Amino acid sequence: MKLILALYLALLLAPLTALHAAEVRVFFETHCFDCHDSETKKGNLDLTALKPDFGDAETFARWVNVHDRIASGEMPPKKEPRPRPHEGRHAWLPRPYLCGRTQA
């Protein structure tokens, strides 16, 4: 099951374009880095240092945890500014997969 999840996430994140990578960065800067940077590290999590190395099992597991917390609405915390509707809870995932389509 973990292998399937790893492959699925790798496929989802593979088509990141430079533009989308910039949008992802803005999402994390807006909603995550105030609490999860190298100085604050709430929950012992520094997202500024977490690289998208999905071949590493420990790093992959951390990204799965980040995804799950954003997808569930647990993060960002309710007392913090919430993502706007167009940002959505999956704004940092590649757009083609959000629409159920792959790029041609």
Which range does the strand content fall in? under 5%
Helical coverage, percent range: 40-55%
Helix-strand topology string: HHHH
The major pleated sheet works out as: none
Report the mean per-residue pLDDT as an integer: 74
Q: What is the terminal-to-terminal distance?
A: 28 Å
Alpha-carbon Rg, integer? 14 Å
Question: What does this molecule look like?
Answer:
By secondary structure, the protein is mainly alpha-helical. The protein has one domain. The chain contains 4 helices and no strands. The longest helix is centred in the middle third of the chain and has 16 residues.
Question: What's this, in brief?
Answer:
With 104 residues, the chain is mainly alpha-helical. Helix content is 44%, strand content 0%.
Topology:
Blueprint: H1 2-13, H2 18-31, H3 57-72, H4 95-98
Task: Name its key features.
44% helix, mainly alpha, 104 residues, globular
